[in-house]
Amino acid sequence: DSGVTQTPKHLITATGQRVTLRCSPRSGDLSVYWYQQSLDQGLQFLIQYYNGEERAKGNILERFSAQQFPDLHSELNLSSLELGDSALYFCASSGPPGPNSPLHFGNGTRLTVT
Amino acid sequence: GQQVMQIPQYQHVQEGEDFTTYCNSSTTLSNIQWYKQRPGGHPVFLIQLVKSGEVKKQKRLTFQFGEAKKNSSLHITATQTTDVGTYFCAGPDNTDKLIFGTGTRLQVFP
Fold first, then answer.
1. How far apart are CA B12 and CA B108, in angstroms?
2. Interface contact A99-B44, CB threshold 8 A
3. Using one digit for the tens of pLDDT, what is the confidence trace for B44-86?
4. Which helix (H) or strand (E) holds B109?
5. Which of A54, A74, A91, A105 could disulfide-link A68, Cβ–Cβ 3.0 to 4.6 Å?
6. Which of B10, B29, B36, B42 has the most A C-beta neighbours within 10 Å, making it the best mutation to test the interface with A?
7. How far apart are CA B30 and CA B69, in angstroms?
8. How far apart (Å, rounded) are the C-alpha atoms in residues A54 and B4?
């Protein structure tokens, strides 16, 4: 158990809808990362937060947004969903930001857009 | 932007055979990390290499960081069915966000 909690585990929704994915980092970790993994694909970095502030952004679509709250949990909001958004969304956490901090991943949320 | 490629994309081996995956970055890395993702699971951190030419071992797994700090390899000796999964290398870009390699999926046949 990595200590990172993601909910829900599965999400099935229709095109055009909006969903929210939630992540609670490991106790003590201030950094939260979101990654997208499409079927048989690698891990695409979406966004990173540190202690409530956005720290780095990847190729995140404008339809997607995220935030980290004062209690350090994070939410990833996906709107105007398209079929191509179907993927596994992972949250990860780490200690202080920096190049040497390994990531601890949650079990992921599998999003299916129909 | 920085790219991290891995070869091969897939590898099927007979149990007991050795396996190696290679990781190549388009830029010099301050460190390289390796992760394993079991089928249906999430990536799990294995190890981090920091020094040029560094070699680290974890039981049957040997990790190496290239002298130029742009490439790395993971070698598994005498594979077992428990080694099945996708192995990812990852390195920080110039803004310290971790960029994952394309991954190598290992299948081990008993």
1. 6
2. no
3. 999 999 999 999 999 999 999 999 999 999 999 999 999 999 9
4. strand B104-109
5. A74
6. B42
7. 7
8. 24
The structure tokens listed for A82 are 């398209």
Q: Computed from CA positions of residues B72, A91, B46, B105, in that sequence, does the dihedral angle turn out positive or negative?
A: negative
* Alpha-carbon distance B105 to nearest alpha carbon in chain A (angstroms): 9
Q: Give B28-41 pLDDT, tens digit per residue.
A: 999 999 999 999 99
Q: What is the DSSP string of B46-80?
A: EEEE-STT-EEEETTEEEEE-TTSSEEEEEESS--
Q: Nearest Cα to A92, choosing from A24, A17, A1?
A: A24
**Residue appearing with tokens 């079927």:** A39
Judged by CB atoms closer than 8 Å, whether chains meet at A98 and B96 is answered as yes
